[in-house]
Write a structure and sequence with these properties.
By secondary structure, this protein is mainly α. 72% of the residues lie in helices and 5% in strands.
Length: 271
């Protein structure tokens, strides 16, 4: 799919909403504004979560759960899931663009990335990797023979999903690193993408540490109880993952902008 045929216009400092002839509607938003807005939303989610949990400013458990960044099926999870899916859609658009150019291998690479991020969005809501970890734990408990996999499950000190799914995530992260080294348009865009991957790695590291339930050093350093340290770690982990997705989305949008040769990310609704 070739980039939309958008009339040339001067760069805009503010997001612009303009009606063109024939009932068309055009919305043009600078990529940096998208980045700042998403980061602001994530900071608000993290700040509200800390205020509610550590200061008890809301008594209702229903509202607390709705805004708890460490829980599932609430506003932060919805936001995170939508971000993943949007990244997948942008990657799918790039796959169509490369396919239109006749560059099948690049199109396939983008398609795999699109599927990965769409799956991540589904997983964020459906908790697929956590359920796979629980399934592996049940298999290990019922196993009659101590295979290498069962021994790894028994010896692992943190969450079991990490044994089952993490190797795939690491492998796909390496694939994306190599694929985007040349595919992304500009070293600055690749650095932005790499920073997103770094955030993902940091979030996983926090998840592993949190799963060990060994918080003595942090409890002493922060003068917090065990449950408070655990909540803080999970909050930082979740917001770090969101920031990583935002950085990768920004990298993909900026890459698309450079492919299209336009001054911003433009959405067109044709009447």
């Amino acid at each position: 799919m070739s980039p939309p045929d958008i009339p040339e216009s001067k760069p805009l400092r503010e997001p612009n909403l303009a009606a063109s002839g024939g009932g068309d509607l055009e919305v043009k938003i600078p990529v940096t504004r998208i980045l700042y807005f998403l980061l602001l939303v994530e900071i608000v989610f993290f700040g509200v979560d800390c205020l509610i949990y550590f200061n008890d400013i809301i008594d209702s458990r229903h509202i607390r759960r709705l805004l708890d960044i460490t829980k599932e099926t609430n506003l932060p999870t919805w936001f995170s899931s939508i971000q993943f899916v949007v990244v997948g859609l942008v990657a799918a658009a790039a796959a169509l663009y490369r396919s239109h150019e006749g560059r099948g291998r690049l199109a396939l690479g983008w398609l795999l990335v699109a599927l990965f991020f769409v799956f991540s969005g589904i997983d964020d809501t459906a908790m697929i990797h956590e359920r796979l970890g629980s399934f592996a734990e049940d298999l290990a408990k019922d196993a009659r023979e101590k295979s290498l996999f069962v021994q790894a499950i028994d010896a692992w000190p943190s969450y079991y999903w990490q044994i089952v799914v993490l190797p795939f995530f690491i492998g796909f992260g390496l694939f994306m690193t190599v694929f985007f080294w040349r595919e992304l348009k500009g070293r600055d865009v690749w650095v932005l993408f790499a920073a997103g991957l770094f955030c993902y790695a940091g979030a996983v590291a926090l998840d592993v540490l949190e799963g060990t339930k060994d918080y003595k050093v942090l409890m002493k350093a922060l003068s917090m109880k065990s449950k408070e340290v655990r909540h803080l770690m999970r909050s930082v982990e979740e917001v770090t993952e969101m920031v990583g997705t935002t950085l990768i989305l920004t990298a993909f949008l900026e890459n698309w902008r450079r492919l299209a040769g336009k001054g911003g990310v433009t959405f067109r609704v044709v009447g």
